Each structure stands twice: as C-alpha cells, then as structure tokens.
Amino acid sequence: MVLGDKDYLDPELKQSYSSTGASHILAVSGLHVGVVFVIFNFLFSFLFRGGRRTVVVVRSLSVLVCLWLYAVITGLSASVLRATVMFSMIQFGLSLNRKANIYNTLCASALLLLFFNPYYLFDVSFQLSYAAVFSIVFFQPRIVSLIDISTDHWWGRLCNWVWSLVAVSLAAQIGTAPIVLYYFHQFSFYFWLSGLWVVPLSAVVIYLTFAFFLFSWVPYVSSFLAMSLAWVVGTMNAGVRFIERLPFAVVNDIHFGLSDTLLLLFSLSLLAFYLRFKSRRWLYSSLSLLLLMLLSDIAGFVYVRQQRVMAVYDIKGTSAVNMIGGGFNSLYCRGNSDTVKRRLKSYWVQRWCSEPVMANSVALCLSGRRTYVLSSPLPTDMSGIKPIAVYYLVVSHDVCADSATLASAFTYRRLILDSSNSAATEEWWQRHYVHVYDVSRQGAFVEDY
Question: What is the pTM of this model?
C-alpha cells in the first residue's frame, strides 16, 4: 500500500476493497503523498532549525528531493504526479512565506502534467484524482457546515472529527461518481463507512511503515513496530471484509454511457454554481440536465430492447458466439468462459443486458435467425440428408469442408470463421470460399437486425 505494489495482494481482498469503494487506498494517491509530505517536513524541521533564509531553502529543497524520490519509487502514476506537483508548489509557497490558493495550485499542476503528457487527460486515474480533489475542496466545507457540532467537550471534538471524515467521503463521491459509473458500472453504497474506517487506519499504516524503516536497526523497537503494523493492517482488512458483507454493499452492472456521464458532470457543475452564487437559475438548470439524462436513458432503453444482435467475438483461441435481444442474452463459448465474460461485461451493460445464459447446444436462434457453430468435421457421405437451413454458419476449431459437402449439410446466408481457427485453416477457407468473414483478420462480427 505504501509503494503501490499490488502484485502480491490476494484477489479476493482486492475485490473487497473495490466493492466497498476503498480501492483508492491500495494505489498510491494524494493521501499517501500528503502523509509523506508531513513526515518529511517534520523530520527536516527538526534537523534544520532556525529562521535564516539559507536554512529555509535547504529544508525546502530536502523535502522536495525526498518527495520526488518517493514519487519515482512508487512508479510516477498520474495521481502521484498530481499530488507531488501540488505539494511541491505548496512547499515552494511555504519557503516564500506565502499561502497557496488550492484552486490555482490544482490547475497549475494539471497544466504542467498535461504539458508533459497530453494523454494523461484520458487516463482514468488522472480523471478520478482531479475530480476527487476539486470536489473535496469545494463541497467538503459546505457539507460540514450542514451540521453544527459543539467542540467544547472531548466527545464534541470526536463527533466533529468523524463528521469531517464522512464529509470528505461524501464530497469525493460527488465528483468521482459519474466517472466510476462510466468506467466500472458499479456503485458502493457504504463508501462513507469504508472511508471512515480505512482512511485513518491507512494513515497509521504509512506512519508505522516509515517508522519501521527508520528504526529497523533497533532490535526490540523494530519487532514492536512490525507487530503493530501487522495488527493495524489485519484490522483494516477485517473491517473492509465486514463492510463488503453488509446488505446492498455494491450494485453492479449499472448502465451508464458517455452521454450520462457528461450530463451528470455538467449538472454537478451547475449545482456548484448555485451553491456559490445562490441563484436559482443554476439550480433549475442542474435539475433540467438530470431530467434530460433520465429521459435519454428511457429512450435508449426502449431502443436497445427493440434491437437484435448476433456477434462473433475476436478472442484469440476461443469460440464465442453471442445473441442478444429484448433482454435475452445467450452465449456459446468454447474456451475460458470467465475471460470472455470479463472482457464483454462492459458491452453487455451498455446494451442493458444481464449475465448471459450459457448455451450448451451448437445451435442458437433469436427472432427467427438461426445460428449453427460447426465445431466438428462433417461426414464425407451426406446423401439422403436434408440440408439444415441456418442464417449464420460459424466455423470453429479448424474444421474444413469442401463446397459440395458443406452445401449438402447447410444452407446459409453468412459464413463466419471465429478466433479458434489456426492461420492455416483461415487461409484454406479464404482460398476455397469467396464470401467468408474472418474474425481474426477483420475483427469481431457484429450485426444488428
């Protein structure tokens, strides 16, 4: 978690963090860089005492060098670069004894990163990172102000701290929800609870990890820190697993297209204008965009349900034939079905489809269009056998048949070679048949009717 290396992480634990909306903790992000920034500022303020200009410059340069070394070690991801550039600007402002404007700092860091690599704009991590920070900066103070908690007593200060953490989770979710729904098609209802649990403990994990490395040469201290670190990590993981098992923890397969994402983002922007300028026209405009999004989804749902789709997918070494229509989703698969389902999940969600029903037969039919998957050699003697009438004939697993034998067995409209055939088989069919669609060479075959 400290270095952002998830190679040795248990897949089930990784799924638990994803289902509870806490997967951002596993990747190095602004939280990690912020904690590291505080640690190094504390260490170097202790080492370099005094208010002279030379001491201040040396302290700031030391913090910046360590901060960028940490960014390099963790892989220079978009979120790390964003946070490192932002904290570098804050450190620069501190060295000049000037306060930084958070909006200017965020925009400047985004501009520098995009100047360095414009393709960061299309990086999911980059989008989520900036959406979360902008949303926290704007919405978190307004959410906190909704409940006035007295801080005269210790329990009031504790409640105020808890409410501040919940407000941070709510604010971050406001900005990132449209992007998460578009890319991952899921929503975690207990994101606020996982944030309340994971964020403080993850900060403790980072502090303990740095302390462990600093005192690793001290026998008893290092052992105590190691045991403490293991206990905190185990407690954090147990809490995440408990939250995942709560009812309705996560909703999967949510249809959310690009138009929905843009409309929701614009609606949230107009809501922010309303909260800032207190003009009702911004609120009415925001609600109008939400209504437009709802109406477009209803129209899209009706349109897609009326369509019928036959598809043969280009997944190397696999025969994958799919028929979709009117909420019906049937999949014929010979190969790794889990891989096929994982790769096609987003496509099915876009078409308002649930998990497919696995077809056991090589014959499929939807709305009168029959599909047959030819996966075994045909008999050489087809005399006395009436040809089977199909619309789509899919050739699979290196089956070859001359034109006379094939004509005796089938009458068809479209001849398709799926991705389970070898290159030699594909060349054979291309030589002997003129109208043949080769999925491996021409891409997935998808036909709406």
Answer: 0.79
